[in-house]
Amino acid sequence: MSKRLLIFGPPAAGKGTHAKRLAGELRIPHIATGDMLRKAIDEGTQFGRHADSFIRRGELVPDELVMALLQERLAKPDALQGFLLDGFPRTISQARALDARMGEQDEAIDAVLALEAPIEVLVKRISGRQICAGCGAVFNRFFRPAKLAGRCDDCDGALTQRSDDGEAAVRQRLEQYRAVTTPVLAFFQAAQWPVHAIDSVGDVDEVYGRLRRAVVD
Ligand code: ADP
Ligand 1 centroid vs 210 CA: distance in angstroms? Predict the structure, then answer.
């Protein structure tokens, strides 16, 4: 069964939602660079403050910063037998660095799960997204509304919008994805990492089933 996996796709394709579930099922760590960066921002570290200025504008955080974070995370014992990377690599140079690391360790990426969705769906998912400040649960005003507006169904925490989900930042994130991140798919193919294209439109369980079939069954 595949153990070293990447989940790839545009903002709001559903990477985080499915990655958490799949990593749980496969008992491998879910390593999401976006989550790690947001944690550093919340902790108010110098590193976090620097990353925050890029994220708010919808820009990619510089490769050296993200690489440092990721190399440290991959060296932890729980990642030695496998991992699910979410939101990394997002540039050709990040992909090269990961490839070099895999080569040094005599390891390989077993599968790339490439989520696909039309741009109108992505925009609606992002503009409706609400995150619980208490427990991190994700709701959507259009697709998965909370029972009580503005409050989390699970813990009653306040629902908030991500700092980079405003209109200008979203446009910039989608543009960065198109211009800088999409070419990374060709790198995966050239490196012979098996790429599975997954249609991410549809009910959450249905999309998860497609992902699961690619790596578990
Ligand atoms: P999404 O995929 O929905 O945009 P993420 O949580 O994966 O959200 O990422 C949020 C932001 O964090 C990105 O827009 C970017 O600024 C930064 N980021 C995350 N991962 C990377 C990465 N690998 N390289 C550069 N920047 C990153």
Answer: 24
